[in-house]
Design a protein that fits this description.
It catalyses: (6S)-5-formyl-5,6,7,8-tetrahydrofolate + ATP = (6R)-5,10-methenyltetrahydrofolate + ADP + phosphate. The protein is of the alpha/beta class. The chain has four helices and eleven strands; from the N terminus they run H-H-E-H-E-E-E-E-E-E-E-H-E-E-E.
Length: 198
């Protein structure tokens, strides 16, 4: 790795620590209420095609909770899937059927077991550490979503990418590289922000 690449990684690590400390400091009651507000905001501005496959995530640590929104969308006819860790490098998405049991799927999260069919989401709700006003996402550093998106792109798939976060996770600038894929939207307790049209 070049010196510039090492410096960029160090910058990202420091930024990640800073923003996650802010998120962790939020009162649990605030996080709960903010998750409900974000779900309410999304319902007023996002119209899903009936039967659309939506990738959510099962929250870990202090992440904003997408489950209220996912539940609302399921009621409106959306199909749901969740990420599962296949190996150290790879996540895939398995359909989350209404009566499915969830199992530990890596990194402290939960998802459908290996009997659930693999899915290709048209819309992805993405967890993140931070984001900036350009729509660049600061992940957790493992690159799982980056590789999944590259795989989808190679198959000709271009899902709508909606990051979910608390307002306090916005930063001035997320260092990015040419291969990084920006979010199309960010959903927080304050509402939905659109970064570029599709």
């Amino acid at each position: 790795m070049t010196q510039a690449g090492e410096n960029r990684n160090d910058d990202k690590q420091a930024l990640r620590r800073e923003v996650l400390a802010r998120r962790d400091a939020l009162d649990p009651r605030y996080r709960y209420e903010a998750s409900l507000r974000a779900a309410g905001q999304a319902e007023t501005v996002i119209t899903l095609p009936r039967g659309a496959m939506v990738a959510g995530y099962w929250p870990i640590r202090s992440e904003i909770d997408p489950r209220p929104l996912l539940s609302n969308w399921r009621t409106q006819g959306a199909r749901l899937c969740l990420p599962v860790v296949i190996d150290r490098e790879t996540i895939a998405f398995r359909e989350f059927l209404p009566d499915a049991d969830l199992v530990p799927t890596g990194f402290g999260t939960m998802g459908p077991d290996e009997d659930a069919p693999l899915a290709e989401p048209a819309i992805m709700l993405m967890p993140l550490a931070g984001f900036d006003e350009r729509g660049h996402r600061l992940g957790y550093g493992a690159g799982h979503y980056d590789r999944a998106l590259a795989r989808f792109s190679a198959q000709g798939l271009q899902p709508l990418l909606i990051g979910m976060a608390f307002d306090c996770q916005e930063v001035a600038y997320v260092p990015n590289e040419p291969h990084d894929i920006a979010l199309h939207r960010i959903l927080t307790e304050s509402g939905l922000r659109i970064f570029h049209q599709d």
